[in-house]
Amino acid sequence: MAMLVSSWSKDVYSLPETYVFPPDQRAGDLIPLACNNPIIDLNKAVDNHGRSETIQQILKAGREFGFFQVINHGTSQTLMNEAMEVLKEFFDMPAEVKERVFKVDSSKKCRLYTSTLNYDTEEVHFWRDNLTHPCHPLEDCLQLWPENPPRYREVLGKYSVEVSKLVLRILDLICEGLGLENGYFADELSQVQLLSVNQYPRCPDPSLAMGMHRHCDPNVVTILKQGDIDGLQVFKDGQWISVEPLPNAFVVIIGCQLQIISNDKLKSAEHRVVTNSEVDRTTIGYFIIPSYECFVEPAKNLIDDCNPPIYKASQYKEFLGTYAEKIGEYEAVMECYKLQ
Prior knowledge:
Elements: H1 5-8, E1 39-41, H2 48-64, E2 67-71, H3 77-92, H4 95-99, E3 111-114, E4 129-134, H5 138-141, H6 152-178, E5 192-200, E6 212-215, E7 221-225, E8 232-236, E9 239-242, E10 250-254, H7 256-261, E11 271-273, E12 281-289, E13 295-296, E14 314-315, H8 316-325, H9 330-335
Parallel strand pairs: 1-2
Antiparallel strand pairs: 2-10, 3-4, 4-5, 5-12, 6-11, 7-10, 7-12, 8-9, 8-11, 13-14
Protein name: Fe2OG dioxygenase domain-containing protein
Organism: Camellia sinensis (Tea plant)
InterPro entries: DIOX_N (IPR026992), IPNS-like_FE2OG_OXY (IPR044861), IPNS-like_sf (IPR027443), Oxoglu/Fe-dep_dioxygenase_dom (IPR005123), Plant_2OG-oxidoreductases (IPR050295)
């Protein structure tokens, strides 16, 4: 556990060689484009007219950007702040305290590690630590979670319940917009729900390091609380754009399975994470994931003679194998599942 970057990085003034990425994989010194990030006000979806308008905005953002931010979503600002505070407390704990509870072991449901689970075989490491654990059903998961800080289970339990409700509400709006039956994403398509917390410590040379490489998310959808610090970037029209941090907003990222189900009416967002030299950055991701045995294919309601299926049906566990083999590279992964 001593290798957690958050445990030793404060004493480092130059970037270790094992964290220096090749030039073609770095963010470099280029400033990404600022753009009008799509922002969805969920409070407007309370009446029929506003709901229809909100749904169209979501579909447009999902098609053109692969992500959008939601505001006025109903999740308590106090709860969001408390969750972020507790997680910062967690990563500030001494390494030996964390080591007593967690091991770097991919077979464990609650995992704490640095860079990726493939740390020992990586040629270069990401400047991040990650804590991941299941959240659904909550009563079956709580005993797997950290016991420290003392508020962890209480606060993150409440947070997980509220965020799960929110993301499933957003999926219901997408269902309505696509013409799918209500609850299409219930059961198998959302059977696995994970909390994934990333800690990106301040970095001595952000131009050489990466928090996370360019990738797509293999799941159905990701909802991210990114705090108030820049770092998330999305690839659009051949250029990187910054996802501007908005107070109390969530970023919703379309995953590969949602692209397949929508038959390309929605697109998965390629994204990456850059570091900074000024402050630590903590983000809270919540993943909606199919069961590993689930077969995923374009929704039958979206297929007709004029709109043939673009993707073949496949088990999610097979897709994950391909995703790992292609290291999350968007075009390479999706090409493997296209019908010829």
